[in-house]
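seq:
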Amino acid sequence: MRTPLKGGELIRRCLLLVVAVSFFAFLWASHLKPGSWQVRAQGLGNGDCLACHSDPALAKEAGGKSVSLHVREKDFAASVHGSLDCISCHADVKAVPHEPAPARVSCAECHSATHNAYNQGLHAKAIRDGSAKAASCLDCHGPPHSILPSSDPASKTFRTNVPTTCGSCHGQKFVMEGTGRSAQTFFSYQESVHGKAVAAGSTRAAVCTDCHKSHDIKPPSDAQSAIFKFNVPKTCGQCHEPVQHEFDQSIHGQAIARGNWQAPVCTDCHGIHFIKPHIDPTSSVASQAVARTTCAQCHEGVKLSQEFGVAGKRVSSYLDSYHGLASKLGSQVVANCASCHGIHNILPSSDPRSTVSKTNLVATCGRCHPGASENFALSKVHLDVGVSKDLGSVVSGWVRTIYLWLIGIVIGFMLIHNGLVWRKKAAAIRRNGVRQLVRMTARQRLQHWLLLTSFAVLVLTGFALAYPDSWLGWSLGSSETIRRIGHRVAAVVMIGAAVYHVGYALLTKEGRQALKDFRPRWKDFVDLMQNLGYYLGRRSERPLFGRFGYPEKAEYWAVIWGTLVMAMTGLMVWFKVGVFGFLPRWTIDVALTIHFYEAILATLAIIVWHFYHVIFDPDVYPMNWAWLDGRVSEEHFRQEHELATEASLEAQPKEE
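struct:
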């Protein structure tokens, strides 16, 4: 039988129990941040903090313009930190009210590994360099007291919300200015196959953090970056593992494995942010784009030929072939590069696994041409006449050379023969015709010659400047100097002729009379309507014209207008440095546009309107000779200008 404890012993044991319980309570509290147990010991809890911070009025009264001063108790409880006490982060708060304000909380004290990764990234580096725009923890994770876990659909870091979160900075032009990066990448992603899938609710499509990582975001120039060129296949392989395996085995993948910078990776063909499906006509891997632009980036030039011995001009030789011609005509089923060489599993023809290996060509061609034989498969796909050394290419090269010489000789002979015949017959018509009426005086013919020659040179040199790779550029020796100086000399001649014409029209009797006769009248409009009615069969007689009918008047005033516009815009472009002194830069761009399209208008007007009336009109064919000697026949003048015939016969201007 146990002896009952005496009173003193009972008290001693009770005291020991109290001490033990207090000690274990101290150990339990010590898992909090240093100092937190002292605050708890002072009796502070979340309720004490939220008594003020959950009340917007009290927070505002305390001078709180920052959102951190107002904490909604419900939001904090639902946040990822809801199970913690306020003093777990704000350990420097010892009492309420507290002065001074608590120090800024460092996420690194709990999230050291994540913080270390962030410190290695671009955002932290930008902050260290003094940028106020770079993202910090709260920019991505949300307000400090309502941060939600990434698994919560409402979280800023929930998978489908990541593009929007990143776009809050990277989609804002004013934020990205001065960073060396463009806001366009965000909008390109939104239009991509990945962006559209995410917008539709997919949780499997790639988002920003899949390619760039979450915290240790590094530039593509960093070998540790997920978007470093040689790491791109592995990065894309996170989602497209079978494709990555095919690519790694391909000639491109092997070149990348050897460290060849010029070999393409996924983004070189598919794009970076603007990735689209191959069925989209705007995609870089669409059927039409593959042959014309995507593969051409590497395989059209000579760079690969010089460095690695890879054949060049593969795209142009394809486009000259039957397949290429069909592609140009818009065929949606014709073979392109990928049809024969493969997509991701491209291998050299020497590899027995290659789709263009001799042993596999029949099967490859048979995909589009059922029943294709070995002879069919050996036919040329790239029409590189004269380049390859096989028998077919050599023979085709000789045939091409013979035909080029044959075409030059035959067509040249035809041109010379017909030119001689035309010259003889035209001279006979001119010589035998009676052309006693003076239509153009010597001074008028001089002005016409100046206008004719300067305009012709301006057209040739101007369009050669606009299209330096055209036949016009080649005809001028492909010399920019000749084109530029020739264009300006011709412009000076035309402006000089224009100034001379103004003086002629105002200061000479002949010029004043011509200017008076060129004056538009209401009769010109009536004549136009009646003439159209006559040639449409609605009238039985043509209208009668004076010295100048509406065709001559329209052309005369068009020349005045065109010369004025071309001279003004041309001088603005020529002396653009001086023009910038009093006009904004955009006016030069407008002047160039006007100059270009006015030149097209003037050239077409001369060809369609003027050439018809002086060359192709059956009544004057092969041409109106007045531009050479100034004379026309009385019959022709009476037919075209009956109202002025008698006056012209009575008072012919003297030749000067």
